[in-house]
Amino acid sequence: SGPTGLSNEALLAIVADRLECYQKGSYPCRENDWALHYVENAMNWLAARSRERVERGVEGKMEK
Fold first, then answer.
1. By CB neighbour count within 10 A (0-12 exposed, 13-18 middle, 19+ buried), where does 43 fall?
2. Global pTM exceeds 0.85
3. How far apart are the first and last CA of the chain?
4. Contact at 8 Å (CB) between 20 and 43?
């Protein structure tokens, strides 16, 4: 009854949340800030990919 597991998007959202919490804590650092930047960038690219696939009518299908 549907896919199981965790999507890339959900996993990246979890990582982003953790990094944001670290940065709001007592010991923020530039490495976490950069990591968060790249995780958010990855999330944006995956969202763009999904939008494009929806427009083509192939989102959720094993098609290019």
1. middle
2. no
3. 24
4. no
How far apart, in whole angstroms, are the C-alpha atoms of residue 64 and residue 58? Answer: 8
- For the segment 24-60, what is each residue's pLDDT rounded down to a tens digit? 999 999 999 999 999 999 999 999 999 999 999 999 8
Rg for the chain (alpha carbons), in Å? 15
Tokens of 17: 């949340």
CA–CA dist 11, 50 (Å, integer): 16
Among residues 12, 17, 14, 19, the alpha carbon closest in space to that of 44 is found at 12
